[in-house]
Design a protein that fits this description.
Number of strands: 11
Helix content: 25-40%
Radius of gyration: 26 Å
Number of domains: 2
Strand order of the largest sheet: 6-7-8-9-10-11
CATH architecture of the largest domain: 3-Layer(aba) Sandwich
Shape: elongated
Distance between the termini: 61 Å
Length: 366
């Protein structure tokens, strides 16, 4: 079970883990990739701290590999003082150590695994010591997480301000089920216009156009792509928040006058440009995943729970422009977690929501 937990954390952190395998005369618990370097894994779940004997055996495995090989030794119960303080005297540290106190804040969502590993690597390079506690590397982990004070006078009905209190993404929060028929009509007028499209600006001014198709939950968010510092360009990043966390989607709004496929049903250059932008953004995210998930208060982006392979939605063209048979390449996009729809798909959904929104129902009864 402990090994499964470790591999789940490595996978969640997009560190491309490989589970245990056997070479002639040795067992390797696994490996993973961090910043282009491959690390071999040793995982021990015992009631007593790991001793020099176990560490020396792991170092022996590393010495039999190419010189660039590195290691990560994870011991649930920690390491003896000799392991942490004297083992590397007179020799190069080729591995770093982690214990349960390093793993716990990752499980609690207070810091990313990749961030801890990079901190330990830097410390090992500067001190030649294989173990520095995450609590020492990141002093904020010693602080108790903030808790909201209990309200006086019992329960009260939460208003919108209460709902968003403490939400680090509140500037991008969008209230659901509030779309109006006039907003939908304005959007439809723009995508019908053959002139250079202004629909992206209109969506930025009316962001709920992008979230009405999402499910109910604890909040919905629309973040313009140019608001994400350091990231390659995308149009929007949207999210729905539920009891299981955030679910994110990349949105690419292509020209409504373009088409996803040509007359032969093959993907157009416009569609593939959108695809390439999505893949470039995913690649950037894979390299900056810890920073992306980290709280804004800690110089992160606050994109909690985001995955390196973030699902995406491309809106392009109109239904009348779609070729009768979609090329296999478009069908394959769904395997890459990329959906492709025409603008009519979104407009029809918005019209249905607007016709039944509380705002419209109120107008009908006044």
């Amino acid at each position: 079970m402990y090994e499964k937990l470790i591999f789940d954390l490595l996978d969640w952190s997009s560190l491309h883990p490989r589970k245990g395998y056997r070479n002639p005369g040795e067992q390797i618990d696994g490996s993973f990739v961090l910043n282009g370097n491959i690390y071999l894994l040793e995982i021990k779940y015992t009631s007593n701290p790991t001793t020099l004997v176990d560490v020396a055996a792991f170092e022996g495995k590393l010495l039999s590999k190419p010189r660039w090989s590195r290691g990560l030794f994870i011991s649930h119960s920690g390491f003896s003082p000799e392991c942490k303080e004297t083992y590397t005297i007179g020799r190069r540290a080729s591995s770093i150590f982690m214990d349960s106190n390093d793993i716990r804040p990752v499980l609690h969502g207070r810091i990313g695994l990749k961030e801890i590993l990079e901190g330990k690597l830097r410390s090992a390079s500067e001190s030649n010591l294989p173990f520095t506690s995450a609590l020492e590397l990141f002093p904020f982990l010693n602080e108790e997480p903030r808790k909201s004070p209990p309200s006086a006078g019992g329960f009260k009905r939460a208003n919108r301000i209460d709902f968003l209190e403490g939400d680090q993404l509140k500037d991008f929060h969008v209230w659901w089920d509030q779309i109006t028929e006039s907003e939908v009509q304005g959007f439809e007028n723009l995508i019908d216009n053959p002139n250079p499209p202004a629909h992206k600006h209109y969506v930025a001014q009316n962001p709920r156009l992008l979230i009405e198709h999402l499910r109910g939950g604890h909040g919905r968010y629309v973040i313009p792509g140019n608001s994400i510092p350091g990231a390659p360009p995308i149009d929007f990043l949207i999210a729905e928040r539920s009891s299981i966390g955030f679910e994110w989607t990349i949105i690419e709004l292509e020209n409504p006058q373009d088409s996803a496929t040509d007359s032969n049903g093959k993907p157009t250059s416009a569609l593939m440009r959108a695809h390439d932008r999505i893949e470039e953004w995913r690649s950037w995210l894979d390299q900056n995943l810890d920073r992306a998930r980290r709280d804004i208060s800690r110089n992160g982006l606050g994109l909690g729970d985001i995955e390196a392979k973030t699902p995406a939605l491309i809106l392009i063209g109109r239904r009348t422009q779609a070729a009768s048979g979609a090329h296999a390449r478009i069908r394959l996009l769904s395997r890459e977690l990329i959906q492709v729809h025409t603008y009519d798909w979104l407009v029809e959904y918005l019209k249905g929501k607007a016709a039944n929104s509380p705002h419209t129902r109120f107008k009908q009864h006044t």
